[in-house]
Amino acid sequence: MLDRPAVIRIAGECGFPEAVRWNETRTKEYAEGVFRGFIVEAQGGKP
Fold first, then answer.
1. Tell me, what's the pLDDT at 11?
2. I need a labelling partner for 41 at 20 to 30 A (CA). Which of 2, 18, 22, 47 fits?
3. What was the pLDDT predicted at 1?
4. For residues 6 and 44, what is the distance between their CA atoms, to the nearest angstrom?
5. Where does the chain have alpha helices with state H?
6. Closest residue by Cα to residue 4 from 43, 30, 25
7. CB 1 within 8 A of CB 34
8. What residues does each domain of the chain span?
9. How far, in Å, CA of 36 to CA of 47, rounded?
10. What is the pLDDT of residue 46?
11. What is the pTM of this model?
12. Which candidate, 26, 33, 28, places its Cα nearest to that of 1?
């Protein structure tokens, strides 16, 4: 989890392009999630 480039690569190899884009564009949120925990939003995200 701390090796962000590896997380991005593995997500891409596993067929999760949305996760790749999210991780590439939200560096701060990713780091905070790793150290403080992620908050899962309801399916569909915010309105």
1. 98
2. 2
3. 86
4. 27
5. 4-13, 17-25, 27-36
6. 30
7. yes
8. 4-36
9. 25
10. 59
11. 0.74
12. 33
The dihedral region occupied by 45, where left means phi > 0, alpha psi between -120 and 50, and beta the remainder, is: left
The token pair at 44 is 């569909």
Helix (H, G, I), strand (E, B) or coil at 27: helix
10 Å CB burial of residue 27 (0-12, 13-18, 19+) is exposed
What is the rounded CA–CA span in Å between residue 21 and residue 8?
Answer: 9
Question: What's the token pair of residue 6?
Answer: 């590896």
How far is residue 19's CA from residue 37's CA, in Å, rounded to a whole number? 16
Q: What is the pLDDT along the chain (47 residues), one digit of tens a residue?
A: 899 999 999 999 999 999 999 999 999 999 999 999 998 888 765 55
